[in-house]
Amino acid sequence: MKKLLLAVATLAFALSSNAQQFLRPFEGISTKKVSYITFEDGTELETPIKSVKRKKSLIKGFSYKDENKNKIEVPIEDIDFVYIPQNNLDKLNKFTDFAHDPAQWTRSPYDEERFEKGYAYFEKVPVMIKKKKMDLLLQLLNPTNTSRIKVFHDMRAGEAGGFGMGGFQIQKSIDKSFYIQKDNATAERMHKSDFKKEIFQELFGDCEATVTKYGTKPKWKDFDQMIYFYNENCAN
After folding, report:
1. In terms of Cα–Cα distance, which of 7, 14, 5 is closest to 171?
2. Are strands 174-175 and 159-160 parallel, antiparallel or unpaired?
3. Which residues partner with 83 through β-bridges?
4. Up-side HSE of residue 203: CA atoms within 13 Å toward CB?
5. Residues 6+ positions from 17 with CB-CB distance below 8 Å
6. Is the dihedral of CA 84, 89, 93, 95 positive or negative?
7. 103 CB contacts (<8 Å, ≥6 apart)?
8. What is the pLDDT of residues 124-138, one digit of tens each?
9. What percent of the chain has pLDDT over 70?
């Protein structure tokens, strides 16, 4: 019991001190709960997703069963965005990640209630990969404020740092790379090793408040805080 109380106390501290961190990436999908798929034409389909089609770790589409139990394939070319329910274990491990402060959602266009229920949000994003532009379906990691910069999970990224206790991730690791989209332009992959002062200036140089706060010695471990601060203080 003492260990459980300690874990809960530690989780509460983590929530209060790290509420602005990125959501942890999606890992497991619930095939029983309803997903919400919005197509390019604006129509929405509510159905459990039965399988995810992947190629080299990237999502290429989904499948579901219609009312006649026929398998229907949905390629990402037809999708605008989708809310996917995470499985119970995945949802539990993300307990410390959800930003419970309502003030953080004031400028968010996303469905807060679905995030509270353990859904992950994926959006089709134009991305540059090796000088080639292509569309990827990526998980948004900073839904509470995306006024200027959106950060998407890189499914092929490694992680740096972090430790767990009692099955919970207490000190959250930060991915070694993300896809970054600024002002709705084509997203680009940013790796930890690329995060030098030049990159900092390219991303945040038009915001004096962010440069003053973080620009002297920008550190990768503070990247999520920089994004949140920039979006809060230098919105268009």
Report:
1. 14
2. antiparallel
3. 36, 121
4. 29
5. none
6. positive
7. none
8. 999 988 888 999 999
9. 75
